[in-house]
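Field guide to reading this record: the first block holds the primary sequence, the second block holds the structure written as discrete tokens, and the final block holds curator observations. Each block starts with its own label. This record concerns Late embryogenesis abundant protein LEA-2 subgroup domain-containing protein, catalogued under organism Kwoniella shandongensis.

BLOCK 1 — SEQUENCE
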Amino acid sequence: MTSRLSTDFPHTQPPRQSGYGNPFGYADHQPHNSLYYEQGEEEDEPFDVRADFDGTGPRWSDRYGQGQGIGQDVGKGEGSLRSGLGGGMVGDDRSYRPVDDHVAPTGHTANTKSATSREELVSVPVLGAEWQKSELHELSRRGQSELRGEKRTRAWREWTRDQRGLCGSRWFTRRILVGAIFAFVVALGIALFFLIPRVPSFEFYGEQPFSVDNSTISFNRTPTNFSFSGNLNLYADASSSYLPVHFTSLQAKLYDLTTDKLIATGDWGNHRIAHKDQQPVLLPVTFSYSALNTSDTTWNDMYDACGHLWTGTTRPDLKFRLVLRMSIMGLVNHPEQSTQISDVTCPFELPGNSV
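BLOCK 2 — STRUCTURE
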């Protein structure tokens, strides 16, 4: 297989010819490449690769200031010789002309390439720097998460230093936010002062604290108990409230003040009290109590206070303690209120033959 160089350029050892004008013995006429030369074209100088890259050879002697002084001209014209370095080597002057004196073949210009040339230039991109370990870490999911965390931390620090605003706005700095929160808290406090309902106060109606449905009265010795239904007559004061007080539940528990035993319960239910007003409240209750025997103090107190009025007898008074548990719309907690009353006359009288 023959390479291109073997056909385009002369052999290393061409046939020698004797003669003064050819001291190396090379043939005057070397074979030409048919792709670069045409019939009748001026012959080019022989190409010597080693002479081009030999910086200390005769071709580049002018570079070191030696010029024509390296050797003597033996002849003139195309047959002139130079004595080589070392005193013995001489060569053809045409073999050491600068490369820029080369005349391009026909069909080649500085910017265009001949159609006869089968060579093509390939642009190879320059290889970039290798990826660093830190750059590969930033491309991972964990690296992206760390970058987002650093971005949030940097944004938070800049905001706390009043260097940037909040929510993408430049004016919403920390100082503005603190002022807005303070103003909101003040406005909210003023609004709640007027909007939150106040817990009303209750007290017994002095003239008649409670009333009884006589058809429900029942006293027994065996078993020992009593029961009846009635209403607690209360007086509600809601003058401190700026809004109406809406009760969802008003539970009442009535205790004997002497023995502190529960004797009655009730619930007012869903009612409303007008604001800045005082109004009576009829709270329905059911009296119910049972004991072991008739010697129980609580049963005896109720029986003696409500017994039959015999001639020359005096009935003792009743003493109660009332506990109210309120559920008011607008209040989270369930406030409780307690009040008591004494010297209460029983509103009914038992028959003489009852028990």
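BLOCK 3 — OBSERVATIONS
The two ends are 145 Å apart (CA to CA).
The first helix runs from residue 4 to 8.
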